[in-house]
TrEMBL record:
Coiled-coil stretches noted in the UniProt entry, renumbered to this chain: none
Entry protein name: Acetyl esterase/lipase
Naturally occurring in which organism (per UniProt): Sphingomonas aquatilis
Domain Peptidase S9 prolyl oligopeptidase catalytic: 208-335
GO-annotated molecular function: serine-type peptidase activity
Keyword Metal-binding: no
Family matches, as PANTHER family: AB HYDROLASE SUPERFAMILY PROTEIN C4A8.06C (PTHR48081), PEPTIDASE S9 PROLYL OLIGOPEPTIDASE CATALYTIC DOMAIN-CONTAINING PROTEIN (PTHR48081:SF6)
Key words, A-Z: Hydrolase
InterPro entries, per the entry: AB_hydrolase_fold, GDXG_lipolytic_enzyme, Peptidase_S9_cat
Entry's Gene Ontology BP terms: proteolysis
Record region (Disordered): 1-22
Length: 360
């Protein structure tokens, strides 16, 4: 969250040249477009009318943003992925200072908050409450590759995870990064900054396993929307997307299990409505880990064919898949309780699945 709608993605991509020429003005226009009207569409929850799902308008609040580095809540330790002296590629916002703010949509009766203009990626580690299972989970929030939804799809997921005895790490990855449009078709950036950051975080968790009290072979990933795409990309390759610099980069970047929540950017929708062909940049490996996929049938931002295409491709490759579909829920519901069954049921379903695959 916010949305991965065609409207905002195309706007983000087509604005790439403008961002290079007028970074501050154009980025602010892009950010406000994504966080405003488009978020309202993406995060809307469905209601039932005459037995059919519809997408009502949600309550909204004004968007408020301010310069400042996102701070971890009590219980979390925020750590840089790379030393401050290591040069890193900049996001589209260039050297603009990091900022924080709230989205316009109210989710589960509350605002949600984001971090943006991120040049120094971090992970925030939360230790388990009570029994330590030795399992760890890297959380990749959504945000349309424009911002990172730090609470709704980040720290709140860790609140649940630590109660299950899981060590949890929330990734604050580099954004914004537009996906370019070539001949009218959106393309994946050649260098995907969020994927670099996710792979680095996985390596750090493994190399520091003793420090965190975790099993280096029981580290999974959970991603939401844009973060779900990153989780899928991590699952299907052992190759790092940046040069190896230290011991952390020599660890496997592939997770031991994956949770894919309302994923985006998988389906090649140019093939027609009945096609389930994946985008050319999506690769499938038979070595991908067991995967739990979650989606709402009435998600108008990322339609149901997105996860279906990915689930079928994994199954064809022999990868174990557990796919949970719900009639209502819309997009970007996180774990906040709502009137829809999805938010009441999917955390329990995930817990049972983790038990089934031997992670709890």
């Amino acid at each position: 969250m916010p949305p991965d709608t065609g409207r905002t993605q195309d706007a983000a991509a087509s604005g790439g040249d403008a961002l290079r020429h007028h970074p501050d003005r154009e980025f602010d226009m892009l950010r406000r477009a994504v966080l405003g009207s488009a978020i309202l569409l993406a995060a809307s929850l469905a209601s039932s009318t005459g037995g059919r799902a519809s997408t009502p308008v949600r309550k909204t609040v004004p968007i408020v943003s301010r310069p400042g580095v996102w701070q971890a809540p009590v219980g979390g330790r925020q750590e840089l992925l790379w030393a401050a002296t290591v040069p890193l590629a900049k996001p589209d916002s260039g050297n603009a200072p990091e900022e924080t703010g709230n989205g316009s949509a109210i989710v589960g009766g509350r605002m949600w908050h984001w971090a943006g203009s991120i040049t120094r990626p971090t992970m925030t580690v939360f230790r388990p409450q009570g029994r330590n299972t030795g399992t760890a989970m890297l959380v990749l929030p959504g945000g349309g590759f424009t911002v990172v939804a730090m609470d709704l799809e980040g720290t709140e997921i860790c609140d649940w995870a630590v109660r299950q005895g899981i060590t949890c790490a929330v990734l604050k990855y580099r954004v914004p990064q537009a996906w370019p449009v070539v001949n009218g078709r959106r393309q994946r950036p050649k260098v995907l900054l969020g994927l670099e950051d996710a792979q680095r975080a996985m390596g750090l968790l493994r190399v520091r396993a003793a420090r965190y009290g975790i099993d280096p072979h029981r580290i999974g990933v959970i991603g939401f929307s844009a973060g779900a795409y990153l989780a899928a990309a991590m699952s299907n390759t052992e190759a790092r997307t940046y040069p190896i610099a230290d011991a952390a980069d020599r660890q496997s970047p592939r997770p031991d299990f994956a949770v894919i929540a309302y994923t985006a950017r998988m389906l090649d929708d140019s093939k027609g409505r009945n096609s389930l062909e994946l985008q050319p940049w999506v690769t499938i490996s038979p070595k991908a880990p067991p995967t739990f996929i979650l989606h709402a049938m009435n998600d108008s931002t990322d339609p149901i064919r997105q996860p279906m295409a990915y689930a079928l491709a994994l199954t064809d490759a022999g990868v174990p898949v557990d796919m949970r579909l719900y009639a209502k829920g819309g997009h970007a519901f996180g774990m906040r309780p709502s009137a829809d069954p999805v938010t009441r049921e999917w955390p329990g379903a995930l817990k049972q699945w983790l038990r089934d695959i031997g992670m709890l």
